[in-house]
UniProtKB/TrEMBL annotation:
Record lineage: Eukaryota, Fungi, Dikarya, Ascomycota, Pezizomycotina
InterPro entries on file: PEX8-like (IPR055334)
Listed name of the protein: Peroxin 8
Amino acid sequence: MATDRLLTTVLGLFQNVHDAPKTDQILGTTVSLLATLTNPLNISLLTSHFLSAHAIWHPHASPSQTCLRVMSVFSTAALRVRTAEVDGRLSHTIHGSEGWARAVARGADDRSARWQHLLCLTGVLTGFEGSHRQSLSPAMRRTLEDAVARAASIALADAKETNSPEPTRTAVAVALTYAFPLLSEQARASIDADALVPAALESMFGIEGLDGGMFIGADVNNDLRVDGLGLLEWPQTSPSFVRLQHVSSRPLVRSLGPLAKMAAYAIENAKSSQLVLHAQDRLLSFSTQLMQHWRANRLSQLEPLDVPAHLTQGTAQITWPIMLQTQKNIMFACAFVLQAVVSRALLDSRISGHSTLATTTASKTLLVLRNLHFISSRPGNSAFQVYSFIYLGSIDILTKNGGACVELLRQMFPPSASIGQVPLNALDRVLDLFYLSLAEHLPLSLTPDACETLIVRPAMVYISPASSRAMPTLRMVELFEAAHSAVLSVLCCPQNAPLTVKLVPPYAEILFESFPSRISARQFRMATKTIMQIISPPFPISATHPELAETLLEMMRFRADTTAGKIPLPPGPGESAAAVAAQESGEPAAMAAPMSEQTALVLAMIDSLPFLPLSIVEDWLTVAAISLNKVEDPDLREVVKRRFWDVLVSGEMDVERAALGVAWWGTRGGREMVLFGPAHDSTRSAPLMMSGAIVDEVERGCKL
């Protein structure tokens, strides 16, 4: 009788709106009643009135929060019922967990909307089957899964017919975020994917989700303070941080990963290709807003790795990490959605079969990645397969159309290239880094003029000696390397031979000026090796300008023999990781060995030997051997000797050059020069004599 009176009281409380504590009490009592009522009819009655209760669905409550709480009521009640059944305390009148589930499902009647039915059914499903509990029979679980999928599709259809998307979209998003991992593939396929795509995306980026990313923007500036040491402080109690925490605690933001996976599934299975393009446009719009809001934040002006040094201890340990983690979650969610878009662009013939549409899709995807690069450029944030697939897949599509490549580069063209100066704002440098890294992949699809204007010109801003005056941060090192890679990719293209002739001399000069102050020995060797390949056979430039190869070699020889430092160089930033990568990729061991400026130059000469014209191979074998023996440090000299031998025997040389190398080593004194120095060269130690002269090779001794 006490339970019946409590049921009557709760049903009465459902009719009016109450304050938050009273509402919490009503929800708790509802859970208790659902788990303890013994009459299935009362369970159905309570469910019916609860789903339509004014006390729960009042206009001042957050829709997503309310949906989650309603779902939690049924999930918690289901879990209690299952526990009571296992313990033998469940009334026999309910007929077990499945009987209780049927009683609850009967309460989802015409008094409430379909989206409310969805919340109820999802709560029951997660309560019984979540966390691998397997409380229901296979038949009952299939029935419940089908009911969830059918309720979701009908709710989305009703919202479209009545032109009132909210709160239906929010309810569907909240429910399916939790139900999707539990649904079979058959149940998922029965959901209307075309209707789910806009609902999922609006839930991600709308008011109940990320809300355009405003919480990372200019509002933070109002709360930043400078302490006595000149450090920035962003207090935990500041309105902007409280708002960040509020957004992060929203149900749809807290479960952003599962929501993004659900959206990706809907995009992959949508029947309409146009919906895929609309989804990409929505993502591009959001990412643009997010980057603009971040630009308005004063913290965006600082280098990411240097930010902690400019913050107070409390800010660096509490508020700032939460900002970074929120941004990271956003990037991962966007990556899941982009993966689905790129997959459709590759597999959907209605997109991939239309050249303009395919390249436009790829361009927009790369623009989204550019907008998010202030997040992905932080260490480790882009080191996952989904990001690589999106990036490289989009580039693959884009490079099929040279005009689209030009258009995209013009759209992204960095302002720094126009003024010829490294930008002061860290965010602008991040965008320049993305531009240069992308440009490196595109020269084969561009004309020489486009390469010079859109790739070489922006790269020279960071390569030129003037850029060395900028602060030598890790980001500047990345930009410097990206700029070199972009220029080398242009020089490698056969169609750019006239441009190569124009660029090689000044570029080589810049390269020598930059070593060893701005680039490591390993980077210098790789760059010079690439240039030597470009200006040697079979590239056409070697026929029109045969002097370039020897000129570059002579520059290396002269510096190695005269002004080069002989003290071992310290490893540069990331050199240890680069050495490991070099070894894993099969690069010579000398790449990872310690070296001085002098040995790096000699090794660069040796690296170039496999590419030289046949007519000068033997001469430069001799010159390299002479320079080798001018290395005074025996340990460093041994590294060079091993590399010399490696070039001769490892197969780097083709057959003709290898034959010349063997002859030089065996019969032309090469072995003696490399191992013992020029003084032991047997070809040079014999005195000059007239042909046919009689020489005593062995001093005659006395025969007495």
